[in-house]
Specification:
Length: 228
Amino acid sequence: MDPVFLITGASTGIGAATARQASAAGYRLVLAARSQDKLAALAEELGGEERALAVACDVTEWSEQEALVTRALDAFGRLDVAFANAGFGGARGFGKGDVDEWKAMVLTNVYGAALTIRATRDALMESKGHLLLTGSVAGRRALPGSLYSATKWAVTGMGEAARQDFNDTGVRVTLIEPGMVDTPFFESPPEMEALQADDVARAVLFAVSQPPHVDINEILVRPTAQPG
């Protein structure tokens, strides 16, 4: 029976690219996002309900994360990979941006990722599966005035904390840390030749394709032209 790959933030960018590459690799998919139109179109593209479920989910709501995993198990009977990918950024500068947007960013990027870990934990242990989290180069070096950077530092710590928590269960944990990626995350296209979402998706599939005794804990991937 084909393995099952769950992705939050799946409607665009890295999430959608990973869904397409995982589908090509033989995975059945559980695709979660708040953007239902794009999500439903992607699920249909990747085989419809027999191969790809589209599930509305606000990752900051525990009940919706629980329902997401329940839907996955009801439909496919197992969960082999969970990719906590939902997140967004904001303006740099602690005197800029809307404070309600700050709150939403922290809840989505940090609390939402933690809820994905909690919601998928039992199913991943049952399958001796794989947890992935989307971090960032910004979670390795502080960006001036960037609350987003602070949230990704939290995800960096969460990845290692989860690895230790899952130790001896057979579950592997990988933190994917992209540099600048040309995705809808940015309001305007990057000036340098940035990574494409497919480049990051290949890193995800590389990690999950390793034999069970190999755990790729971190993949930091920058555009060749990115200076920092």
